[in-house]
Specification:
Distance between the termini of chain A: 96 Å
Order of helices and strands of chain B: HHEEHHHHHHHHHHHHHHHHH
Strand content of chain A: under 5%
Structural class of chain B: mainly alpha
Distance between the termini of chain B: 45 Å
Shape of chain B: globular
Shape of chain A: globular
Strand order of the largest sheet of chain B: 1-2
Largest interface: A-B, 52 and 56 residues
Strand order of the largest sheet of chain A: 1-2
Number of helices of chain B: 19
Helix content of chain B: over 70%
Radius of gyration of chain A: 31 Å
Oligomer: heterodimer
Radius of gyration of chain B: 22 Å
């Protein structure tokens, strides 16, 4: 069964692609069916794990052995991987169903479904790995699928650019990740999780000299691993690819860039909790980056106009939450938020996809508005997703996000208090931009010029069905799983799959903290309704009065321009310089071309000696004779 | 004495070449016959070498299938033998050559018969290099390989073929002359040119440094290492597709093989002494040529520069003197042999159809060539070292090996991995994705049967060795162990002397 979970999507990806010769519908049904079975099996594995403790490690075969570097392909089922299995395969199954409806006009349906299944396979391989290298395989594999799917509409120049950008920015992260793995192997002699984690306490005080600096080994490893996580989870500094990745089809955004792949970074940090727990610096680093990302992305999301980009920045910001939860040592809470976030963020993306689909691929929210009566199901699903995202009381986001803020506070350090306050501010910003999205999209006046309002219909059943399921999950998942995942007896579930050294004392939470966020979130609904629907004048005033700030946010803090200026252009220039000045003008000029030129010149000169005149030869002989004589006179 | 299997695989192509020479008839008929004969010969050779691989004993590091014939009595012996390292190179050679010959059907339009003879003769020389256990014999094969390659570039090449052929010849000859001097010196010191005997007696440390440099100059040009790499892009650009394939897949590997067998094997002390030099040159090669590759507008040149960067990983790995590094560099060579061959073939597929190698004359090919795009994608991913392709295994092991020795070197080399992703994806995007704008392109057809077979087989092997590299590591394991142990004992000896 464990093998089936991993390999069914792969079979789907390969066979599903070739089934297109019988008709697209076959490959759609085939891939969807296999992923649905995978989802079902994941639930069974999860259930068996919780109630029958059937956790274990299943070897597939040896991958690389070179001296003491031994890596296996294997399936490792433990609480952490089993919950990830459920999230990944469940969302993936829904997205497969959704894609059948969403891609109905696309000529390359089989290819799309096949990529989706391939992605699911890579993601599952990442999740169930028992060593860092297989994790890296999955890590790069999902990166590849993300590249292929972002660039799925390859006619679009922007989509291609976004795809390459995503891959290369991720490569920068992977570079850090790989160095982390090298460090682990060189010092621990193994890349197997359980073996590495056993050795960690022994090495916790070890200092090494790294590029001239004396650094604690564990800290160094954690920081490099985290750089990998930053790339994949689009954290501050390496976040630039995620908004651009929205060029891909919407189901892709929902599956890859919201629910699963981007959370791989969080998963990595949680998986490595036995490492991170031994390095205070690394934890603080994770917290700070998480905090900055959370508030930065939320601030940018407020002014964006592309419906998918808003949600993308929102994802970025929510991932920041997860990271600072992990950074303050509350790994289980980070996982809980990952769990609930997967549902409501996939819901929001799929909902926005439904809107885009109905509006003939319109993505700008300034060209929408007032369509809630036309698309009641989508509207309702989006409302639920937004409520869950903003942390409206008793929906899933409420439990997970408030828990993060509480645990950050309970950390007891200054950084923890700071993180907690950033969390509250970000929660407020989140509510504002989320409701802005809802109001601009569904309420107010209808502003689209290309379509008449009566033409707009709600989407087909294959699109709506996943929305309904996800809406149900968004409402209930927090409430149902709260005690189980982050309750007082959380250890019963997580066992030794994550390590939390610090104990959190829940009795210390002040009451005002418990109420601040829900109150702010609830207040933000009428507030944003007022700003964005009732009275637009204030908004225009703010825009004109604070033009520089507005532009700063609208241009995403000018990160793309900065990176072009600092990295991309200089690298191009250096490359050109090396080629033209290095290879052609230096090496070739003084090397082969130079030598052949000199030989030509010399031979031209020597040719002149052979004039055929006796007196020429006599003259040369005379000179030679005199030179010889001089030599003998002076040196003998 | 057993059946001389090594001599047979070495000289079988030569016999094949003789038969190709004898083909007569009208042009078409003659060409067909020549192709059949050469495909048949090389395939038979491939199967014999596979048989060799199966009967190879990977438990011992001794040379196997040894053959010895006196040539010039008392001076030069004709001695063949293989160990775990050389057998992989032989397999690679016998595997790539038939593919090359099949690619001639589409790529070589003039004097096909003569071209096939050149390729077959070249195969003999290449296998000879990897089998030889006598320095003089090795030198003969090593140098003789130049001649057919020189002709392939000089006769069937592009517009600047003469310049490129001479550049290629001059560069390689420069190093080789020094190597010849070194071989004579070794004979003068030890009284023999038999590699196994020299390995036993060893070469006195005081001679090692100069000898090492002489061998280095030859292998560095072949590799090619920075700064003697500039012949490679020119040679690749001008060479016809099968020529580029052989050049990238096998000829470059002679340098790496030479480093392993001779530089490290015969001169351990000098090798250790010059390690910083090699590291520096490898790092420069990796970063410098990756950056240059980023700016190319000619597809073949881009791949040529990327080859240099990949060979940088190989030299880096060899001189880490640890298991991961050396095994990684051997796997890297093997996998680069497959991937670069595949990439040059892929470019050849386009060149045969449109006669342009410029990136800007393509774009949007995925609309008309879906199969081709898929195969090209796999090879591009292999180049950038995606886990699951053979490119990853080699690169990753080399980097691990390097990391054990020196953090800075390994980190700088890892930057090359990011750059590789940049240049190859950029190439892929420009050629395959986007809108189909060039009107000329609209008529071209997807890969035909023979191209499909060549690229398909390569694609399969790239993935196979990516997911299951054990096949390779099992074969080389003991030999690499032996190499490292020899090296370590020699180094230990000198420390005692001091």
């Amino acid at each position: 069964m464990e093998y089936a979970v991993l390999f069914l999507p792969l079979i789907g990806a390969i066979l599903g692609f070739f089934l297109k010769y019988f008709g697209d519908i076959f490959s759609q049904i085939f891939t969807t069916l296999l992923v649905c079975i995978t989802a079902l099996l994941s639930f069974i594995i999860f259930y068996n794990g919780v109630f029958n403790e059937t956790y274990g490690n299943y070897l597939i075969y040896e991958w690389i052995t070179s001296g003491n570097f031994i890596v296996n392909w294997s399936i490792n089922i433990d609480p952490l991987s089993s919950i990830m299995l459920v999230v990944v395969s469940f969302i993936s199954a829904l997205v497969h169903i959704y894609s059948i409806g969403y891609m109905d006009h696309d000529p390359n349906k089989a290819r799309f479904m096949s990529y989706l299944s391939l992605f699911t396979f890579s993601m599952l391989a990442l999740v169930v790995s028992d060593n860092f290298l297989q994790l890296f395989f999955g890590w790069e594999g999902v990166g590849l699928c993300s590249y292929l799917l972002i660039g799925f509409w390859y006619k679009k120049e922007t989509a291609n650019k976004a795809a390459i950008k995503a891959f290369i920015v991720n490569r920068v992260g992977d570079f850090g990740f790989a160095i982390g793995i090298f460090l682990i192997f060189v010092f621990f002699g193994t890349v197997n999780y359980s073996e590495v984690f056993q050795l960690v306490p022994e090495f916790s005080q070890k200092e090494i000299i790294f590029l001239g600096f004396n650094i604690n080994l564990i800290t160094l490893i954690c920081v490099f691993l985290f750089i990998g996580a930053m790339g994949k989870s689009a954290q501050f500094l390496l976040h630039t690819w995620l908004p651009d990745a929205m060029e891909g089809p919407t189901p892709v955004s929902a599956l890859i860039h919201a629910a699963t792949m981007v959370t791989a970074g969080v998963f990595l940090v949680v998986r490595c909790s036995p490492l991170f727990e031994y390095s205070n610096f690394a934890l603080a680093f994770v917290t700070v980056i998480g905090m900055i990302t959370a508030i930065f992305a939320a601030s940018v999301a407020i002014v964006q106009n592309d419906i998918k980009k808003i949600i993308a920045y929102s994802t970025c910001s929510q991932l920041g939450y997860m990271f600072f939860a992990a950074g303050v040592g509350a790994y289980h809470v980070a996982m809980f938020h990952l769990f609930t976030h997967a549902f409501f963020k996939a819901l929001l993306f799929l909902g926005s996809g439904s809107v885009i689909h109905s509006l003939n691929d319109e993505q700008d929210i300034r060209n929408m508005g007032g369509i809630w009566r036309q698309m009641p199901f989508t509207w309702f699903a989006m409302i639920i997703g937004t409520l869950a995202l903003t942390g409206f009381p008793f929906l899933s986001g409420y439990y997970s996000k408030d828990a993060i803020i509480e645990f950050a506070y309970l950390n007891g350090s200054n950084l923890g208090y700071f993180a907690s306050s950033i969390g509250i501010i970000t929660a407020f910003l989140t509510a504002i931009y989320s409701w802005r999205l809802i109001f601009m999209t569904f309420h107010g006046k209808f502003k689209n010029k290309n379509l008449s309002k009566t033409e707009i219909k709600d989407s087909s059943l294959t699109i709506l069905f996943p929305l309904i399921i996800l809406a149900l999950c968004s409402v209930s998942s927090g409430f149902l799983f709260k005690d189980f995942l982050i309750g007082n007896n959380y250890e019963n579930f997580w066992r030794d799959s994550l390590l939390i050294i610090k104990s959190f004392d829940h009795s210390q939470i002040p009451n005002w903290l418990l109420y601040t966020t829900p109150v702010l979130v609830t207040l933000s609904i009428p507030l944003s309704y007022y700003i964005y629907i009732k009275n637009n004048i204030y908004l225009e005033k703010i825009k004109t009065n604070y033009k520089p700030i507005y532009n700063f946010l609208l241009n995403k803090w000018y990160f793309d321009e900065l990176y072009d200026y600092v990295f991309v252009n200089p690298i191009k220039k250096i490359g050109l310089f090396f080629w033209k000045s290095g290879d052609i003008k230096t090496i070739d000029k003084f090397g082969p071309d130079g030598v052949s030129k000199i030989i030509k010149i010399i031979s031209k000169k020597t040719v002149k000696f052979q004039s055929g005149y006796i007196y020429d030869y006599a003259f040369v002989m005379l000179i030679a004779l005199s030179l010889l004589l001089t030599f003998f006179i002076f040196y003998k | 004495m057993n059946f001389p299997i090594l001599s047979s695989i070495t000289f079988l192509p030569l016999i094949g070449a003789l038969f190709v020479f004898l083909t007569r008839g009208e042009n078409d008929e003659k060409n067909k016959g020549a192709i059949y004969v050469s495909v048949f010969t090389t395939l038979v050779n491939f199967f014999i070498s596979l048989f060799l691989w199966f009967s190879f004993d990977n438990k011992t590091s001794n040379f196997q299938f040894v053959e010895e014939i006196n040539w010039i009595s008392g001076f030069i012996k004709f001695k063949f033998g293989i160990d775990g390292i050389s057998i992989l190179f032989i397999i690679l050679t016998t595997f790539i050559t038939p593919i090359c010959i099949i690619s001639c059907i589409n790529s070589v339009k003039t004097r096909l018969k003569e071209f096939l003879i050149a390729i077959l003769v070249l195969e003999t020389f290449m296998i000879g290099v990897f089998c030889s256990l006598d320095l003089v014999i090795f030198y003969l094969f090593f140098e003789a390989g130049l001649i057919p390659m020189f002709l392939i570039i000089g006769i069937w090449g592009g517009p600047r073929k003469v310049y490129s052929a001479f550049k290629f010849f001059l560069f390689t000859l420069l190093g080789s002359v020094l190597m010849l001097v070194a071989i004579i010196t070794i004979y003068w010191i030890t009284g023999t040119t038999d590699v196994t005997k020299i390995l036993q007696t060893g070469i006195p440390p005081e001679f090692q440094y100069l000898l090492w440099l002489a061998f280095f100059s030859s292998f560095a040009v072949k590799m090619p290492m920075w700064p003697v790499h500039t012949w490679l892009p020119d040679a690749h650009v001008e060479a016809p597709t099968p020529g580029s394939v052989i050049l990238a897949a096998i000829l470059l590997k002679m340098g790496g093989y030479g480093f392993l067998r001779f530089s490290v094997g015969l001169f351990p002390i000098a090798s250790e002494y010059f390690t910083p030099l090699i590291f520096a040159l490898s790092i420069i090669a990796i970063i410098y040529t990756s950056l240059v590759a980023l700016m190319q507008d000619d597809m073949k040149k881009l791949i040529a520069y990327s080859s240099i960067a990949h060979m940088g990983f190989v030299t880096l790995g060899i001189f880490t003197f640890n298991k991961q590094g050396i095994e990684g560099s051997i796997i890297q060579m093997f996998s680069h042999g497959l991937i670069s061959a595949a990439l040059f073939l892929s470019i050849g597929v386009l060149y045969d159809r449109t006669h342009s190698r410029m990136i800007k004359s393509y774009g949007g090919l995925v609309h008309i060539l879906p199969k081709y795009s898929f195969l090209f994608m796999v090879f591009a991913l292999g180049t950038l070292g995606l886990p699951g392709t053979s490119g990853f295994v080699g690169e990753f092991l080399v980097l691990i090996g390097a990391f054990k020795v020196n953090f800075l070197v390994a980190i700088l080399a890892s930057i090359g991995v990011i750059l590789a992703a940049a240049y190859i994806l950029w190439l892929y995007k420009k050629v395959i994705f986007g809108k189909l704008e060039n009107v000329q392109l609209q008529k071209i057809k997807d890969v035909n049967f023979s191209e499909g077979i060549m690229l398909g087989v390569l694609c399969f092997t790239v993935l196979l060795f990516g997911f299951y590299p054990e096949v390779l590591t099992e074969t080389i394991k003991v030999s690499v162990d032996n190499l490292i142990n020899n090296y370590k004992t020699e180094i230990a000896k000198t420390i005692i002397f001091k």
